[in-house]
Each structure stands twice: as structure tokens, then as C-alpha cells.
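User: Need the bound-state model for flavin-adenine dinucleotide:
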Amino acid sequence: MKIAVVGIGVAGAFLMNQLSGFHDIHVKGFERMPEKEHDAVCAWATCDNIMKDYAKVCGLNFDDYILHDGKQMKVDVGEGIESGKYIKINLKGMISYDKLKLIQDMIKGTDITFEKSPNKKTLEQDFDVIIDSTGFHRHYLPKLKNELWIPCVQYKVKYQNVPFDDFYLKAFPSLSGYFWYFPLGNGYAHIGSGDFKRKQTHAFMDTFMKKYPCEILKKVGRPVRITPPSKCLPFTDGNKTIGVGESIGTVYALLGEGIIPSTICAQLFVDNLYDKEKYISEVLSTFKIYSNVYNFIRKSIDKKFNIIKDFVELLKIYNYMKSSEDRFGMEINMLNMMKLTKI
Ligand SMILES: Cc1cc2nc3c(=O)[nH]c(=O)nc-3n(C[C@H](O)[C@H](O)[C@H](O)COP(=O)(O)OP(=O)(O)OC[C@H]3O[C@@H](n4cnc5c(N)ncnc54)[C@H](O)[C@@H]3O)c2cc1C
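Assistant: Bound-state model below.
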């Protein structure tokens, strides 16, 4: 079987690594960026407890990529960090890591053409299966209607004196987004902001940088898909193309977190390589809760969330996260969730 993997982000890199080992498969990757400019646009935060296993199946040691090991995250819910009235979230596995280096090591020795976004017709002539792992772009799959995505900007920066020694978030009103400061070790950090309403993004970034001057090393901007898998159907074009990763909505919308979900999705694809229908049903069942999270966010940004009427929905999300503390790498606390819904 000849497989094309188009888009070499977390999902594409994992697929290249895993599928290249199958004896009856010829796999070829394509990435639109030139190899020297290939980047992993992302804040690089994830959970060690989960990623170490995925790195291990790829023959890599995740510890080699960790840049900062989180202990406690401060979440400013509106009163300013100086007020002392911020949420403290104890971390148990949340880290920042060199995402680009891990991708580069996962694809070592595999067959990838960079600086190429192949034409779909050519792909269909040359391959039996075309995997769309182009992330937000979903380039080879049918376009979706009524999509929800959050525009983001992010800077890689360097500080002489770091403003925080650990992860910091500032939540925007009505859960319309947040600002993040994620340490990358040795004075480096990713600072960024995503806001559905686009009002806070630049304003808060500017305020933060005036308060904590730094050297800007790189500026990027990209939206994150919030639409969950259940609303990203179809996952195929009805022919040879099938989506894996953010292209089919595997982002945990409450946190804008897509590294682990997209890797899980890629693993589901590998596990069900010869059964497309089973892959689709497993993605839908694995990421079922993402639809509840999406409904919650939709209501919050439309100012229609009502703590009494929607308590059951919130409880489902809480129970899921509470039972998955190791997966999220942080302690989950109902009081904190309630505080966040009130801002
Ligand atoms: C600013 C920002 C910060 C984020 N921070 C975090 C975080 O800290 N933690 C976390 O878990 N998630 C984070 N996310 C989300 C996470 O980065 C993504 O959900 C995840 O990387 C999706 O993985 P993927 O492999 O599906 O797609 P991507 O990682 O987006 O990879 C897609 C690849 O496809 C390539 N491509 C696109 N179009 C084409 C084409 N037509 N032809 C060929 N190649 C193409 C792209 O260049 C890219 O290399 C963040 C996202 C953004 C935008």
C-alpha cells in the first residue's frame, strides 16, 4: 500500500515514524515549508506523563526534549497578579518541550519532500491513501461550514530577568480566550494570546511587554481549530483522502491544547490502518467529550452560559478532567472551574 502523509506537524511526524516501519507499506511525506524553515507553531506545552510513552514507541526519550518542568501555574482571573487573588494550579506533569526537535527526530530516516504541497490529482494517481495532516488548513478535505476557531499571536522572547518562574495565564472575560507565558528555560519563553473577540489579543500583549521588557526573537500568528471532531465530519473526501489531527478537530478547546489529542489521533489511525470506518468511529468515541467542551465554550462566548441550567454540562467536563489529571498534567479543582466561568 502506498501512503502519502501531507503536513509534517505532530500528527504527520508520528505517522511517518510509525508507518515507515510497516513491511508492506511505502510511506512518503510532504511538507509545504522548506526544511530550514520548518517550524512547530505552538507554545510547546504538553504533559510529560503521556508524551513520554509516544516518544518511546518512536524510539526516543522524551526527557531529552524537556525545557521547563512546571510545578505551579498562576491563572489571573481579572484582579491582577499583584492582588494575590489569582488561581494557583498545582502541576503534575505539565512541561514545555522542544517540539520542533522531537518532530525532527521522529522523521529522521523517513522519506519526506519539503517545500511541497502536492496537487491532489497527482497524489491520487500515485498513492492508495492520502493522509491530510495539514492541521488547521485541512487542505485536502471538504471545507467545513460554521467553523469555530480562535485567532492567536505568539512571540518567542528572551528575558534578562524573567517575570515568572513558571507557567502563567491571564484569562479574558467570558472565556473568550487567554494570554499565556510559557517558560522555555534559560530566560526564553513563548508569550502569546488568543481571543475569539480579537479585542484583547494585542492590547494585553502590549501591556505585558511594557511591564516586562524582553527581546522578541520570533513572531507568529495562526488560528487554532475549536470545532470538535463530531462537527468536522466528513473525515474523508469519499475517495482516498482521510484526515488525522487538528484537520479533523482534535484540539481540547478549553485549553487550546492539540499536541496530545493529535498524537492520540495519529495512533488511532495506525491501529486501524486497514479499517477506515473503525478509525472514524474510534476518533468520534475517543473525543466525544470535546463536543461538550465545544458547547460550553460556544455558550460562554455568546454569553448564554447559565451556571444553573448548564451545571450538568459543566459537571461532565469537570468529571472528565478530574479523572484525567495525569493526562492533563495538573490538579483539577471544581472551585477553580467555577471561578473561571464567572469571569
Ligand atoms: C499559537 C499556538 C499555540 C499553541 N500552543 C499549544 C500548546 O502549548 N500545547 C498544545 O498541546 N497545543 C498547542 N497548540 C495547538 C497545537 O499546536 C496543534 O493543535 C497541533 O500542533 C496540531 O497538530 P497537527 O499535526 O494536526 O497539525 P500541525 O502541527 O499544525 O501541523 C500541520 C503541518 O502541515 C503543514 N501544512 C499545512 N498545509 C499544508 C499543505 N497544503 N501542504 C503541505 N503541508 C502543509 C504545516 O506547515 C505544518 O507543518 C497551539 C496552537 C497555536 C496556533
